[in-house]
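Memo to structure team: turn this sequence into structure tokens by end of day. - J.P.
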Amino acid sequence: MRNNIVSLGADELKYEIREIVAVAKEFGKLGVEIMWENIGDPVQKGEKIPDWIKEIVVEANREDATYAYSPTKGMEATREFLAQLSNKNGNVKITKEDIIFFNGLGDAISKIYGQLKKEYRVIGPSPAYSTHSSAEASHAGAEYISYNLDPKNLWYPDLDDLRMKVKYNPAISGILIINPDNPTGAVYPKEVLQEIVAMAREYDLFVVCDEIYINMAYNGKKAVPLAEVIGDVCGISMKGISKELPWPGSRCGWIEVYNQKNDPVFAKYVKSILDNKMLEVCSTTLPQTVIPRIFSDKRFPGHVAARNKKYEWRSNTAYDKLKDIKGIVVNRTNGAFYMTVMFEEGVLNAKQSLPVKDKAVKELVEKITNGVALDKRFVYYLLATTGICVVPLTGFNCNLKGFRITLLENDEAKFDMIFKTIREKILEYLKST
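Reply from structure team:
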């Protein structure tokens, strides 16, 4: 090319959750039956959407208005409904004007980071959900800035680490929280959230909280919404229906903006997000239309509770299978539908392997594991020998070694088999040298 047209942030756009799919498909071509435990799509894993939800969507689909543009911010009746819902559950009051719809939270994430001045940063957790870490790093054309989540403390944020980084890096202008967390499945106590908000108040920062899993908590835990702790600090909550209904294919998410009138710079920043959205005209109308009808249906609370009960069983079953293995750290998942398994420092090396009977599969796994991260080496051998496709933890923008697996398998016998197999393969792998 005449000029180097590639963005400075292009190298920061990484999404191991889907990149592992290409590797798995290569094994699939060689006859390995793949069990997809890499991506958080409940529908792909066999979850059936209740007929009553489908009926609401079908009924709305018959209305001509659902084929039209919506207002740029989103359907007014839906935003009014969501504002009232937020006000009922939180301590900060918002109106429909504080809500903006997007085509999924990926769209919202792109715009939230994209409208920041390049030199100013939002610090986020590590391990990090790849969409956040990649988008934030790409906007800055620099490496992702992170605070640590502590695997020895239920994957809660290391608040001392966060404070030191905020204090000594004046470019940091916002703090990202994901609660319940992806990839760890942690649900943060109210006190932790309050400390982060207090830190934001002290250093004049805004807070972004990804709450896509806010109603998916179990094992006696409750996910506290940002609206309950934000006080007078400027903040943005990110929500959607992709995981909760679940309807990932709807690509329907929204942000709730808190206290934008408290700071003219933050208000102008939020306006720039809306102005950027305006260039797209609006977000998809149909899923916005049905949100009040589904959320206010008397069957919806029972639907959410029944799903959480299933995830609670899976969480405890998986944890019980893995908790006593020496050489790993595993915490009980309390929210969302992921579990993160971390290998202790020093237990992995580049000589470990699992026996592979098929010659072609063996040649492929030996080829692709040459020089890769040590946790990725385990993930590839697990894939080659069992077909179980998980995501290496180093793919979540961190230096810790391990993997993330979903809790989405609906067949209980198969779910039990998957985690029994993982247990066996971890033990076998760690003993292989």
